Amino acid sequence: MTDAAAPPRPEARNPRGFADRRGPDLIAERRLVARVSEVYERWGFEPLETGAFEYADALGKFLPDADRPNEGVFALQDDPDAEGHGQWMALRYDLTAPLARFAAQNWETLPKPFRRYAFGPVWRNEKPGPGRFREFVQCDADTVGSDRPEADAEIIAMACEGLRAAGLGADQAVVRVSSRKLFDGLFEAGGVTDPVQKLTALRAIDKFDRLGWEGVSALLGEGRLDESGDYTKGANLPIGVAATLEAFLASAGDAGLTRAGTLDAVARASGLGAIGEAALEELSAIDRALTAMKVGEGTVRFDPTIVRGLEYYTGAVFEAELLMDTTDDKGRAVRFGSIGGGGRYDDLVARFTGERLPATGFSFGVSRLVAALRAAGRGGEAAMRGPVVVIVFGEADMQHYLDAVSELRNAGVAAELYLGRAGMKAQMKYADRRGAPAAIMLGGDEIAAGKVTIKDLDAGRALAAGVTDNDAWKAERPGQQTVDRGAMVATVGAIVEAARQGS
Amino acid sequence: MTDAAAPPRPEARNPRGFADRRGPDLIAERRLVARVSEVYERWGFEPLETGAFEYADALGKFLPDADRPNEGVFALQDDPDAEGHGQWMALRYDLTAPLARFAAQNWETLPKPFRRYAFGPVWRNEKPGPGRFREFVQCDADTVGSDRPEADAEIIAMACEGLRAAGLGADQAVVRVSSRKLFDGLFEAGGVTDPVQKLTALRAIDKFDRLGWEGVSALLGEGRLDESGDYTKGANLPIGVAATLEAFLASAGDAGLTRAGTLDAVARASGLGAIGEAALEELSAIDRALTAMKVGEGTVRFDPTIVRGLEYYTGAVFEAELLMDTTDDKGRAVRFGSIGGGGRYDDLVARFTGERLPATGFSFGVSRLVAALRAAGRGGEAAMRGPVVVIVFGEADMQHYLDAVSELRNAGVAAELYLGRAGMKAQMKYADRRGAPAAIMLGGDEIAAGKVTIKDLDAGRALAAGVTDNDAWKAERPGQQTVDRGAMVATVGAIVEAARQGS
Q1: Does residue B140 register a pLDDT over 80?
Q2: Which residues pair with B454 in a beta bridge?
Q3: Could you give the angle at the alpha carbon of A273 between the alpha carbons of A272 and A278, nearest 5°?
Q4: How far is CA B496 from each of CA A376, B412, B447, rounded to the nearest angstrom?
Q5: Residue of B nearest to A90 (CA)
């Protein structure tokens, strides 16, 4: 096809792992972010936007090495600056690291504690796959500078109200809460000091949902051979520590327990150590604050199996999960999985300042929450309607078409003039593809008679499909009608309103 | 300060040319984008978001070379994909190039013409300076697939309504319109074919604002020696061509001309050639459509000195300018400069498909428009108010504080509990720094008596500063009052409303 003499034509395609978003998906995401932002601002969190790039040393765990500067992040070396050295910078991979940098940089002048929320894209240089992107939008809220358990409780309660504002019913999501310190105390009291051993144990507990106690038990001990024949080396924990962990997991399984009841069950497990006991005290204070804020026992539960993958958490951890209306063959609610999470991280800002600054926050992925809403049957309202389309019959009557468009827009009705050069049939097809609720026809006859013909496209489709044979309905909402020109805005307004309610 | 044994601490700082945005500036930007988006959707433009990266070949003019892959853009080489080759990708430097790629990629399934708007950050790898960033937010609207002059007129009229919705008065901005084809015709008719000569001439005309006819004339001829002693080589245009250009510029200077009057003046200049005559026809059709849409002569003017820097424009070009209320010593309105622009670009999509696809659009920088609004005295309303702050006296009464916060939030009042551990004085300072309209005090006495003390912080400041000595005002809006607990929400609501109107 390509002429050898012509310059080569690039192929029009997205970089792998990057997607274009439009239509109902984009509308749904924007609506969700707007509703959650409204809640967060009402709770006293101010908006903050940081730049896409951070210096690589500020991102910390992804310091680029000379051979693979792109490991995990999109990094590049800046041009030499005034001091003559080009520094490595990387696109942010979350919104927490930039907040830590911002808080350290501006701590003197910020109101303390500092509450902020943020949303925006983050970038991960990972292998893309189906539904797995290298760019996605996160929405975070954090409080920096408060060590109070009430700060954790506030974040949790606000996250619940945010999920509700996004459209989830009270029985469709649960936030599970635990504390990293429970494990810290357990390990310390049990003499487990090897970081690798601790990490292996936490990763095993994180799989409780999927493997049950039997599988986790093997991973806490010597190791586990899975069904495919792969062997995973275990944590080799002392028997006493593993027994306490089993008691944790048992209490997590009892859905009838209140938050206080779960804490009681955990407290009865021996070997928590001083740090673990302090963690129970903090969780108890979180419970009191949640109860004071009238957050129900079914909305926020304590669950000592909650671990959270990120290493930087230092205290309370939370995970929001969607509870589907569907049940598995044992009659238990099936989990869609995590739709957000967070926790307390008291050391992130200290990386810059050397001084510990307590912080706690909650984060969710916007696209994933939209998918969760859809799974929960709450995504239907996001149907997108196009503008009313004014049909073009001929150049000479352009003034009449433009008048009609202006009148509709001035009445708050989205409207447009067809701007292609195709005939009547193609214009109707265009209006259909646009999702237009109505088309406006001002032919020469209509203009001469002071009339306008209005085609109700939803009704037209319903009539054509024989969806209704109710004569009264047809009379009330005909597919097409010719009315006085002066009645156009009112007639179209009624059709648009009916389309809005029907969609 | 740094302990030699401790790990090195990174400095908390933004990458150069990247800024954090918060507070009133961010609120103002978001409000502006929301208002403009509402207009664009009412005009039938659908939202589209593309990814941050494009493959470098899709960006076209910034193909990275091996030595300086970062020339102008932030580019990096992707990890090898399944085919084993890592491709160069770059962060988008505008929103037009991604649209051209998207349109070429999806043309089959898009409604035609395709109208979309978009806003989001763009990145330019340039030397940063004061007020000059390497990341900034643009907002664009484009129509792809219509060669009608009405499509240009629609974009221009919509841009005007967008500026109005953003807050600019009808007399505070003007959109100047011309056509690249006027120059194309002029050059063709005058036998000017050298691309460098053409570009030099266009750049000279672009300086008419600053240099006047004398300076431009020198640059169209042999060259110009400026006041600093620098010599700029001229375009060496034939005398006849330069004379026609002078007639153009003369017509531009006459502010009393209507759009049609300007076209008449340009038409009287000889040597436009066939292409120039066709351009006049198109501009005439744009004028008819603008007039049909009731766009005033003062809102959109024709101005043949408008050139626009970007090379890809092929027809109509537009530039929106702020008209300040101030005048210079000759009594003329002083220009703030361009606050947005656009035009027709019929060749961008053809880069991918080989087929010409007409397109036209308008773009503005969000921060720059916010700055323009401020310069025009229309930025004041964006003052940010913090939440009402509930003071913490002691742990035991936490329930009472949390109840107060919940009640206020449920009434739609932004409110928060103080979550630090400082005393009363520091808490009041915190509330002040937050921009809180009121502070709520529930001390032991108030709680026992079923009362609450409410401090109106604006009124308190005014009283303390002796701003008012009006006794009636003091009685009506005291700095501090103790009311029945049941009257808290209503009392605070009135204070917040007064603060909102006063700010």
Answers
A1: yes
A2: B440, B481
A3: 90
A4: 38, 11, 23
A5: B15
Residues 6+ apart with CB under 8 A from B367: B29, B133, B136, B137
Query: SS3 letters for B219-246?
Result: HHCCEEECCCCCEEECCCCCHHHHHHHH
Output the pLDDT for position A33. Answer: 96
Cβ atoms of A232 and A215 closer than 8 Å = no
Q: Which residue blocks in B437-487 are alpha helix, DSSP H?
A: 444-449, 457-464, 471-476
Q: State the pairing for strand pair A88-91/A53-55.
A: antiparallel
Best residue in A46, A102, A142, A352 for a mutation probing chain B (most B CBs within 10 Å): A46
Inter-chain touch A15–B421, beta carbons under 8 Å: no
Angle at which helices A398-410 and A488-502 cross, to 10°: 60
Give percent above pLDDT 90 in chain B. 61
Q: Is the pLDDT of residue B64 over 50?
A: no
Measure the CA–CA gap between B430 and B421, rounded to whole angstroms. 12
Instruction: List pLDDT tens digits, range B79-112.
Output: 887 776 788 899 999 999 999 999 999 999 999 9
Q: Which residue has the higher pLDDT, B467 or B148?
A: B148
Domains of chain A: 23-52+92-192+238-381 (3.30.930.10), 53-91 (no CATH), 386-502 (3.40.50.800)
The packing angle between helices B149-166 and B23-42, to 10°, is 140
Residues 6 or more apart whose Cβ sits within 8 Å of residue B379? B28, B167, B370, B373
- The 3-state DSSP composition of chain B as helix, strand, coil percent (nearest 5) reads 45, 20, 35
| Coil, strand or helix at B398 | helix
Interface test with B, best of A419, A432, A433, A489 (most B CBs within 10 A): A419
Task: Determine which helix (DSSP H) or strand (DSSP E) holds B104, and give its type and residue range.
Answer: helix B96-106
CA distance A384 to chain B (A): 10
The average confidence (pLDDT) of chain A is: 88
What pLDDT, in 10s, does the model give residues A415-449?
A: 999 999 999 999 999 999 899 999 999 999 999 99
- A48 contact residues in B (CB cutoff 8 A): 20-22, 26
Cβ separation A79–B70 shorter than 8 A: yes
> Which residues have CB under 8 Å from A64's CB, separation 6+?
A56, A70, A71, A73, A75, A88, A90
pLDDT at A199 over 70: yes
Shortest CA distance from A426: residue in chain B: B112
How many whole angstroms separate alpha carbon A136 and alpha carbon A120?
8
State residue B320's pLDDT score: 96
A233-291 pLDDT, tens digit per residue, is: 999 999 888 888 888 777 766 778 899 999 998 888 878 889 999 999 999 999 999 99
Name the strands in the sheet holding B333-344, side by side, starting at the edge strand that comes first in the sequence. A21-22, B46-49, B114-123, B135-144, B359-365, B333-344, B316-327, B173-179, B300-302
Q: Rounded to 5 degrees, what are φ and ψ at B490?
A: -65, -40
**Residue B301, amino acid:** R
- Could you give the maximum distance between any two Cα atoms of chain A, in Å? 94
Residue whose structure tokens are 């930007």: B29
Chain A residues whose CB is inside 8 A of the B135 CB are 51-53
Mean pLDDT across chain B, nearest whole number? 88
The Cα-based distances of B187 to B274, B372, B443, B482 in angstroms read: 11, 36, 82, 80
Please work out, in degrees rounded to the nearest 5, the angle formed at the alpha carbon of residue B120 by the alpha carbons of A26 and B157. Answer: 90
The pLDDT assigned to B459 comes to 87
Q: What is the pTM of this model?
A: 0.90
Region for B412 from its dihedrals, namely left if φ exceeds 0, alpha if ψ lies in -120 to 50, beta otherwise: left
Q: Do A9 and B54 touch (CB under 8 A)?
A: no
Distance of CA B417 to the CA centre of its chain: 36
Residue in chain B nearest A55 by alpha carbon: B15
Predicted pLDDT at A376 = 80
